[in-house]
């Protein structure tokens, strides 16, 4: 049995809802505070692997609050998923790697490689 914590942040107009950890409840309330202050906040759409009720692994969206981190369009969520704006990626030689092999290859090429996968 997994524990659920009731949250009444009203983030994005949501009715009271549940989270699995106290940190998620805090993050949800912080995001609502930012929304009320006029800061754009949205649910993270990065796919993460989770074990379903049937015991098999499945993908689902992260859904933790995400915000812009610079004026170029980079953003990050409270779960640590981030996206660096394309202009900055090009300027700084940053590339996302889809797996460990690509990460190694990009690193050997002198790129700033960032994993775009969960390990």
Structure characterization notes:
The protein starts with a strand and ends with a strand. The protein has helices at 22-36, 86-92, 100-108; strands at residues 5-7, 17-19, 42-43, 47-51, 57-61, 65-68, 75-77, 82-83, 94-97, 112-115. Strands 3-6-7-8 form a four-stranded antiparallel β-sheet, with helices on one face. The chain contains three helices and ten strands; from the N terminus they run ββαββββββαβαβ. It is 26% helix and 29% strand. It is of the alpha+beta class and 119 residues long.
Output the strand order for the largest sheet: 3-6-7-8
Radius of gyration: 17 Å
Helix content: 25-40%
Strand content: 25-35%
Catalogue the unreliable spans.
none
Largest sheet data: 4 strands, antiparallel
Mean pLDDT: 85
Structural class, from helix and strand content?
alpha+beta
The beta-strand count equals: 10
| Mass-distribution shape | flat
Total helices: the number is 3
Q: SSE string, helix = H, strand = E?
A: EEHEEEEEEHEHE
Span between termini? 25 Å
């Amino acid at each position: 049995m997994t524990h659920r914590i009731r949250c009444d942040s009203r983030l994005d107009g949501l009715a009271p809802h549940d989270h699995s950890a106290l940190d998620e409840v805090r993050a949800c309330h912080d995001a609502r505070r930012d929304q009320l202050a006029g800061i754009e906040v949205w649910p993270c759409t990065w796919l993460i692997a989770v074990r379903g009720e049937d015991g098999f692994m499945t993908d689902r969206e992260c859904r933790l609050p995400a915000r812009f981190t610079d004026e170029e369009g980079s953003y990050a969520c409270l779960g640590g998923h981030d996206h660096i704006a394309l202009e900055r990626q090009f300027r700084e030689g940053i590339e996302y790697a889809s797996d460990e092999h690509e990460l190694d290859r990009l690193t050997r090429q002198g790129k700033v490689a960032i994993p775009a996968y969960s390990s």
